[in-house]
Every structure is written in structure tokens, then in C-alpha cells.
Write the C-alpha cells for this entry.
Amino acid sequence: MSDQETDQDAPLLSRIEVAAALAFALAITIALLVLLSPLAAVSTGVLAALMALITLTDVRHFIIPNEFSLPAIPLGILANVVMFHAGDWSAGVMESGLGVALAAGSFYLLRAGWFRWRGIEGLGMGDVKLAGVAGAWLGPGLLAPACLAAALAGLAAVVVMMLIPGRKLALSDHIPFGSFIAPVILLFWIWRVFDGVPFW
């Protein structure tokens, strides 16, 4: 469950955590510069930085800050256009827009349905916005396998936690689902880039 609610007096992440996320993104960018075009490497590095920051924040605070998720949506649309639809930008915008609508809309309906059924929030609005990020970067074609991968990763984590001696989980317990969605978005974007961009 992830949303924007947090203690504004405390920093979301330490300087070390932010530096680690940026170093991770820089390492990916440098590695991809050897194999792919600068545009592919830089766009992937930007996504890596945002997804790393989201993952760390969600694990630590159970929130997905708007400062990380909302800018990632237009950046994803831009990356989709320049990487895969340079000759027809409107097609890229429509593809990403459809992805955003499908992903965020589906997560919002899932959130509303769970709340109506159980009376508790199963997903936060942060997760809904992060799903929109997935749609912007991946388009509608990769949404289903990406959501399945994130769900399976989250389920595996829950099973592991249940196997810990003395640990009990209830339906009301919070799971940082965004910390599973964000890495999957990055992995599927890299897969998409390698599949669609010729090597130098």
C-alpha cells in the first residue's frame, strides 16, 4: 500500500541512499552506452534512477512520492516517442497514453473494488500512479507480462515472510508493492530497448 502520506519533517531517503540510487543509474547508463545508442542509454539511466528512488522509498516508508512517479509519466511518453516512434510522434504519444490509461485505470478499479469488498485499502494511489508510469514507458503491449511479473515477485516475498518463524501476516498488513513494480518496469524497459534498437 503506497501513497503520498508521510512525515514532512523527516527526509524520505538519506544522502547515502540517494547517492546509491544515482550511482546505480549511472552504472546502467555507462554499461548501455557500450552496447546501445546514447538516447537508449540515457533514457534507461533516467528510468533506473527514478525506479531505484521509488523502490527505496517504498521499502522504507511504504509510500511512492509524487516527486518521483509523476515526472516519470511524461518522461516515459517522451522516451517512447524518441526511441520507437521518431518518424511519427503522434503514434508514440497515443501508444503511451493508452498504456497509462489501461494500467492506471486497471489498478484504480482494483483498488476501488478491494476497498468496496473488504473495507480496507489494498493499493494506495501511489501504486496507481506507478502503474501509469509502467504504461507510459512500456505501452500496452508489455503491461500484462510486467504486471504478472510484479505480482509473482510480491507473492514470492509474502511466502518467504510467512515462512519466517514467529512471523504472522494479516490481510491488513502493508506490503510495499511499489518496490516490486518499479524494478519490473526497469527490467521490461531494458528488454524492450534491446529488442527494438539495433546494436552499434
About this structure: The chain has a mean pLDDT of 88. DSSP finds seven helices and no strands in the chain.
